[in-house]
Amino acid sequence: VQLQASGGGLVQAGGSLRLSCAASGSTYSINSISWHRQAPGKQRELVASISGGGFTNYADSVKGRFTISRDNTKNTVYLQMNSLKPEDTAVYYCKAVRVGVWGQGTLVTVSS
Q: Which of 11, 28, 52, 85 has fewest C-beta within 10 Å?
């Protein structure tokens, strides 16, 4: 399985972005997908996850602002990010949890 993350960019504080994580290859092996982020000088952290059945989980820092969803017909998981803050600036990665495969990362920069 391969994951392709996209949708990052530069946005002002308070703005929105939607990240996409498209899966290809042996997609039957994909169940849960998670989004992680890594800011400069910091460890990678879990942002949100979604199970094959649609159950979701969020880091406290993004609850109420970010929404993870999936479209199984397109083998794609989305991360809708609203009310963005400068501290959300990071490279965002998606991960196929069961097989431990990471996407390549997409940079999100939030200016103040």
A: 28
Which residue, among 15, 14, 33, has the nearest Cα to 75 in the 3D structure?
A: 33
Classify 14 in phi/psi space as left (phi over 0), alpha (psi -120 to 50) or beta: left
Asked whether 68 and 77 are in contact (CB, 8 A), the reply is yes
The enclosing H or E element of 36 equals strand 33-38
Distance CA 83, CA 65 (A): 6
Query: Please, what is the Cα angle at 22 between 16 and 27, to 5 degrees?
Result: 150
State the Cα–Cα distance between residues 12 and 80, nearest whole angstrom: 15
Q: Please report, for the chain, how many H helices and E strands are present, in that order.
A: 0, 11
Task: Identify which of 17, 21, 23, 24 has the alpha carbon closest to the alpha carbon of residue 35.
Answer: 21
Helix locations, 25-110, DSSP H: none
48: its two tokens: 């949100």
pLDDT in tens, 10-57: 999 999 999 999 998 877 657 899 999 999 999 999 999 999 889 999
